Amino acid sequence: MNIAILDFETTGLDYINDEIIETSIKIFNKKISYNSISKPSYRGKLGSYILPEITEITNITNKMIHNGISQDKLINDIINFIINNNIKYIIAHNGSKFDFIILKLLFKKHNFNIDIKYIDSILLIKEIYEKMKINIKNYKQDTLCNKYLIKQNNAHRAFDDVLTLEKLLNIVLFDYCRFIKKKTISNVNIYNIVKDKLQYSDKLCNDILKLDIFYNSNDKIYKYSNININEFTDIQKYIIK
What we know:
This protein has ten helices and seven strands. By secondary structure, the chain is α/β, with parallel strands linked by helices. Helix 4 runs parallel beside helix 9, helix 5 packs parallel to helix 7 (158-180) and helix 5 crosses helix 8. The chain is globular. The two termini are 36 Å apart.
């Protein structure tokens, strides 16, 4: 049972409207990975897939995206990669508030059911630091990398962020193993550190699905079934601006 690190780059931070433009999944500490740039199903009035500010953050251009794979091929690729590599655990930094939500909604949209255990590396490192009595001002990946002098190459590109997180996790887990006086720590034990924490992504996904929201990729029309204005306002509270 493998553990994998996941990172998505998207057209924005709205789980309902925005789409994936870059994906990276890497088996933890193995040279096995999936990486792709994907084409959103919606283009703006001027023909662009993403706004200039997204390019500024990620260095992903509309030209790169134009040559990307479709969203349908992307989800099929992700599912096949997970199945073929026997992935049972997925780690992402701040995943419970972003990457896991996107992935779970994709699974729901494509009627894909699999027993995946999700590990938010922020929660994992926070728990480890509390046990080791280590203080830090925040748990952003940049802050943690600076603490361990990890050089970040091409930050906000999916594959580079995954490689950086892998380095960070190896250092943190190595220190934790020395603290608990063990040589290694299993995937199960890594998961057990955070399994009792509130899974924000589970609640959010359930709330979105209860609202019966469907996406029409052809003309960017959203169908909101039986949603009154108060309910829709409530769901907007979860969308990070």
